[in-house]
Amino acid sequence: MAVAAVSWELYEMFEAFLRAPAYHLALEALLFVWVLWLLLRKSAPADAGKSKLTEKEKEELIAEWRPEPLVSSTPPSDYVVNPRIISSKVGRTVVVDGRSCLNLASHNYLGLTELEGTQEAAIGGLRRYGVGSCGPRGFFGTVDIHLELESRLAEFMGVEEACLYSYGFSTISSAIPSYAKQGDVIFADEEVNYAIQMGLLASRSKIYYFQHNDMGDLERLLLEQQERDMADPKKASVTRRFIVVEGIYASTGDICPLPELVKLRRRFELRLFLDETCSFAVLGRTGRGLREHFDIPVSRQQCSSALLLFVLN
User: Fold this and answer.
1) Domain limits at 222?
2) Quick one: pLDDT band at residue 45, thresholds 50, 70, 90?
3) What CATH number should be reported for the domain holding residue 194?
4) Which residues contact 113 (CB under 8 A, 6 or more apart)?
5) Which of 38, 78, 197, 293 can pair with 283 through a Cys bridge, CB separation 3.0 to 4.6 Å?
């Protein structure tokens, strides 16, 4: 039986070979020859076809070669050659190379670092509490001065509560994703600072950037969002909408047009994130920031943040 089966298979293969088109057989033959050539051919040496240099040519190349220095030359204007020596505390002015210079490289707008008693108070705080809270706020990183400062800040700003962060960068970058989630919509000024950008990215919300301080462009985006909401009311009912701006923009120094922004917020029912890092203790009659500067009352639909590191240094 086995012999008969093998014979029958060979017969079928032979019949299939006879029925195959000529071009198919020619293509398979060429493919077989090409594979056989690849397997049997000898590889040429790497230097085949290359002319060898004469001794004279080698000597000329060696004579022409100029090695690069291991260490590049230092320009005369480099700081290493002409270092600037600061011989005073950093404040409103600073002594550089024996000359008193106005310090424009600091956020010490109010000169609080030079107030009498500031240094003594800082030393007293270090001796009592140490350097840093040494732990997260929710565990063992909260001490009495944190709670006292939060209470006094909330009272000063006229808000329900205030929350301190140990790291200023994480304040706004974590506050935004704490409220805005995937599926929400955020309208942000195109010049917002890097910390805000990271917060927008972490929120996974749909982000629309409007032109810097252009309330007309913001209104256009809000009207487009309104049309999308009307087309899908079910989705719109669970979608939260936010505006994210700065009081004074760190990248441009421009003041946010808060009155126009508040009108749009009320008209389109939006929540507002306001970063007052550069405007807190700078704008307003008593330093309460942008709201006091424009005489706008506190809103429950507003979240403000600021880095005390800047103006309070």
Assistant:
1) 163-311
2) low
3) 3.40.640.10
4) 89, 90, 91, 313
5) 293
Q: Can you give the pLDDT at residue 133?
A: 76
- Is the residue at 224 inside a domain? yes
Total of domains in the chain: 1
Q: Which pLDDT belongs to residue 11?
A: 66
Assess if residue 219 is contained within a domain.
yes
In this prediction, what percent of the chain has a pLDDT beyond 90? 48
Nearest CA-CA partner of 275 in 188, 198, 172, 191? 172
Domain assignment present for residue 155? The answer is no
Mean pLDDT value across residues 10-17: 69
Q: What is the DSSP string of the chain?
A: -HHHHHHHHHHHHHHHHHHS-HHHHHHHHHHHHHHHHHHHPPPPPTTTTPPPPPHHHHHHHHHH--PPPSSPPPPTTSTTTSPPPB-S-SSSEEEETTEEEE--S---TT-GGGSTTHHHHHHHHHHHH-SS-SS-TTTT---HHHHHHHHHHHHHHT-S-----SSTHHHHHHHHHHH--TT-EEEEETT--HHHHHHHHHHT-EEEEEPTT-HHHHHHHHHHHHHHHHH-HHHHTT--EEEEEESB-TTT-PBP-HHHHHHHHHHHT-EEEEE-TTTTTTSSTTS--HHHHHT----TTEEEE--HHHH--
Q: Using 50, 70 and 90 to split pLDDT, how confident is the model at 68?
A: confident
Report the pLDDT averaged over residues 281-304.
Answer: 90
pLDDT at residue 309 in the model = 82
pLDDT at 189 over 60: yes
Check whether 110 has a pLDDT greater than 90.
no
User: Distance between CA 225 and CA 255 in Å, rounded?
Assistant: 26
Q: Establish if 176 belongs to a structural domain.
A: yes
